[in-house]
Design brief:
199 residues; alpha+beta; five-stranded mixed β-barrel; 5 strands; 15% strand; rod-shaped; transmembrane; transmembrane helix; membrane; DUF1449 domain-containing protein
């Protein structure tokens, strides 16, 4: 145990030992639910977060943790197996290279093994039935509530050239106008909605 502590506190392993303790505490809090983040979403409280600056395709928290562990292990082995001096300093460079390569490899494996995340799009609402939430819907005014595949709802801007769409009525979203940033809708019987949740 004394040899292990000596190696962990020797250069260059000591550079990563404290950071590794911080990472261990962070993941312990995640497992206990004290940080309020999802482990595989990049730590953004439930929103997808795969924009890893390393380009590895992994969430930043996972990439950073894995890189620190790999660098620390290489430095620990270097501190235990090599004498002090220039050889041990070279261990630091080797540790950084191994950490970078390990994170890249893990990212490639993750992209192959994990299904790609579907990015939400406004086009996902086309073909869905919405419920009018404003007093009326016209060619220049209107809002409606629409339900997404995951069960969440969104209030969207809607427009129509037809009459009869008032608060509480249902309409079919059939197009999206990117210039005006609104959906085009037409009156529709909500009982015919194929996406209607089962009661």
């Amino acid at each position: 145990m004394a040899d292990f502590l000596r190696a962990a506190l020797a250069f260059p392993a000591a550079l990563f030992s404290f950071a590794l303790m911080v990472v261990a505490v962070y993941w312990l809090l995640v497992l206990l639910g004290g940080v309020g983040v999802h482990i595989l979403d990049g730590g953004e409280g439930g929103h997808a977060g795969t924009d890893d600056p390393t380009g590895a395709g992994l969430p930043v928290t996972v990439s950073l943790s894995l890189g620190l562990i790999l660098a620390w292990l290489v430095c620990l082995a270097g501190a235990a197996l090599t004498p002090e001096g220039p050889v041990r300093a070279a261990t630091l460079a080797a540790a950084l290279v191994v950490a970078w390569a390990g994170v890249r490899l893990a990212g490639r494996l993750a992209r192959r093994l994990l299904p790609p995340e579907k990015v939400a799009s406004r086009d996902d609402f086309i073909g869905r039935v919405c419920t009018v939430r404003t007093g009326r819907v016209a060619a220049d005014f209107g809002q409606a509530e629409v339900r997404a595949d995951d069960g969440s709802t969104a209030v969207v801007q809607v427009r129509t050239d037809e009459s009869g769409l008032v608060a509480g009525s249902t309409a079919l979203i059939y197009a999206y106008d990117a210039d005006g940033e609104f959906f085009r809708v037409a009156p529709f019987d909500g009982a015919l909605d194929p996406h209607k949740p089962a009661v």
